[in-house]
Design a protein that fits this description.
Layout (H helix, E strand, L loop, with lengths): L1 H4 L3 H9 L6 E2 L6 E2 L2 H15 L4 H14 L3 H35 L9
Helix pairs in contact: 3-4, 4-5
Length: about 120
């Protein structure tokens, strides 16, 4: 399962501990089994985590998807995250521009040039 999803086994265990995944257990061994729907949830969790979503946000999305079967919450979470990335990127660009302008105004910028 871990190889299929591209996630390390300890991460899958963590996700189970945090309530993101709900694997079945084999009776005699206690080994985890991931039926098709849980494999899809693991894929979705991996994709959301790659986009730097927090575990609690991922859990909320997966719980909603399990409850309703409607992927709209996933789309909303992605849109919210993209808006947040845009806001943070603009703040960083403005801060960089302000820093370079300050360095130029004060003469400190003669030795520093933008990349």
């Amino acid at each position: 399962m871990a190889e299929e999803v591209g996630v390390a086994t300890p991460v899958l265990r963590l996700w189970e501990d945090r309530g993101l995944l709900r694997p079945e257990r084999e009776a005699p061994t206690g080994y985890r089994r991931y039926p098709g729907p849980e494999v899809r949830m693991a894929h979705l969790a991996a994709l959301l985590r790659r986009r730097l979503h927090r575990l609690d946000a991922v859990r909320a999305v997966l719980d909603e998807l399990r409850a309703t079967g409607d992927p709209e919450r996933v789309r909303e979470a992605l849109a919210e995250h993209e808006q947040d990335l845009r806001r943070r990127s603009l703040r960083r660009l403005r801060a960089s521009a302000a820093l370079y302008a300050y360095l130029d105004r004060t003469g400190i910028g003669a030795a520093v040039s933008p990349p």
